[in-house]
Amino acid sequence: MNVVIPNCQFRSKTSRLKTFTANQLDEIKDPSGLFYILPFQKGYLVNWDVQRKVWDHLFGPEMFKVLQSGSLSAHRYFYENSSELCCIVVDSGFSFTHITPYCRGKKMKDGICRINVGGKLLTNHLKEIISYRQLHVMDETYVINQVKEDVCYVSQDFYADMAMAQLKGEENTLMRDYVLPDFSSIKKGYCKPREEMNFAGKYKPGEQILRLANERFAVPEMLFHPSDIGIQEMGIPEALVNSIHNMPEEMQPHFFKNIVLTGGNALFPGFRERVYKEVRSLAPTDFDVSVVLPANPICYPWEGGKLLSENPDFDEMVVTRDDYEENGHLICEEKFDI
Q: For this UniProt entry, which segments traverse the membrane (predicted)?
């Protein structure tokens, strides 16, 4: 079983004097009001001290090796599809979305595209919507991130879903009631089953309920239309097609039929289907389009790294701590084709 460990430190409102690191998150009894101390901001390393503490906590101070994760998804894909020469990887994660085409294992720099929309932005937007409409949750990043993962989905027909979300009572089949955790009797929030939802009266005292309708699909829609919240950038399907069009013409059909989705945002229900639908409408009609969603899109790069570690030349591909201390960032540029 793969375990995803947060790359950050935390402080909780109940233990403000203590700092928790990485997998110590499980030791926090009340994660409400959790404060995140992040080494990365918008995908850039801005706090080396925090990153060093995370690495030292997980690996110890002894020497360890660092792999660049960017090409590992492509390595994993080519391992499973050895007859293919090209693929294009969409990595939609915490801070941003990267689109990177690869040919024969090498990234094609002319086609690389970055969209400044990721899971953090979606969570923050959901916090703002809920705080404006129902309950002040601006300090509850941990809780609302869980709400987002539990109830949000990517719409296949935005306007039809919006019309449905405006209906009242039981006619609104998109509406969900989410029970917030109190970290005492309710350790983790959950969606009430449809048959237990109360459309007329109020719930019993002590139960904090969020009623969500259009928020469920309007928040992930930002991945497809960032301009909806004032970010003047392309959505993922348009950026994908634009990236492929920057490739040599004879290679473009191979990229269209080898689109790989990775990162946490790929877990939204309907994400793969929507990407396929929109890319299909934008691609030339005589090109095949295939969009692959791995079983575990978050750990897919790690799986590629695991395969790479079994390569006899693995030691020539990595940068050790000693290498870095002796040569600085130049050794990374040389080894990782930055």
A: none
